[in-house]
Amino acid sequence: MVASSQFLYEIAVQYTDADKIELIRNGTETEHFYQAFGKSNEDKEKKTIGYYGAVAHWFAWEKVCYVAERFSDCDIVIVGEVTEYREKLEKYKNIKLLGEKSYKELPQYLAGFDVCLIPFDASTDLIKATNPVKFYEYLRGKKIVA
Predict the structure, then answer these.
(1) Pairwise CA distance, residues 59 & 81, whole Å
(2) What's the N-to-C CA distance of the chain in angstroms?
(3) How far apart are CA 27 and CA 30, in angstroms?
(4) What pLDDT, on the 0 to 100 scale, is given for residue 132?
(5) Residue 29: is its pLDDT beyond 90?
(6) Sign of the four-CA dihedral 102, 34, 46, 120
(7) What's the pLDDT at 69?
(8) Which residues contact 102 (CB under 8 A, 6 or more apart)?
(9) How far apart are the C-alpha atoms of 5 and 88, rounded to whole Å?
(10) DSSP code string of the chain
(11) How much is the average pLDDT of 118-143?
C-alpha cells in the first residue's frame, strides 16, 4: 500500500501492518518548472503574490483577503478555476482572478510571482490528506507562504 501523506499513512496503519505501507510524497516535473527559476519582472510597478490551483471549499479565502488588505501595494494573482468565494475575492482591486490556464503556461505565471501562496484550509481532511504538488513546483527559486 502507498500513502502520499502522513495523514493517509496513519489511516492505513489502522487496517494493515506498517511494514506493508510505503509513504511516498509527491514530486513534480522539475525541468518544466525550472523554466521559471531566476526569472522575474523587475520592471513591474508592484510585487506579485501568486497562487495557481483551484479555489474551492478548502481554499482559505479569509487569509487571502487579509493579505490583500495588509499588502495593498501588491497584486495577488490567482490562476485557476474559481468555484467558490468569487464574490469575496472580487471585493479587492488588487486580487486578480485570471481563470484556469494550461499546465504548459504555468511556468510563465510562476516566473512573475515574487512570493507564492498555498492558501489551504488545513482544518479540512482533504487538505490534511494532501502533499501539495504545487509546493514542489514553487520550489524552483521562489519564496513560499503556506
Answers:
(1) 12
(2) 28
(3) 8
(4) 87
(5) no
(6) positive
(7) 98
(8) none
(9) 31
(10) -EESSHHHHHHHTTTS-GGG-EE------HHHHHTTTT---TT-SS-EEEEES-BSTTB-HHHHHHHHHHTTTSEEEEES-B-S-HHHHTT-TTEEEEE---GGGHHHHHHH-SEEE--B-TTSHHHHT---HHHHHHTTT-EEE-
(11) 88
Show the cell assigned to 61: 479565502
136 CB-side CA count, 13 A: 12
Position of cell 503574490? Answer: 49
CB proximity list for 123: less than 8 A, separation 6 or greater:
none
Q: How far apart are CA 6 and CA 21, in angstroms?
A: 11
Average pLDDT over every residue of 12-19: 94
C-alpha cell at 15: 487496517
Angle, alpha carbons 66-109-56 (nearest 5°) = 50
pLDDT of 49-73, one tens digit each?
A: 999 999 999 999 999 999 999 999 9
**What type of residue is 20?**
K
- Nearest by Cα to 80 from 99, 102, 56, 104: 99
Question: pTM for this one?
Answer: 0.86
Q: Give me the phi and psi of 69, to 5 degrees please.
A: -70, -45
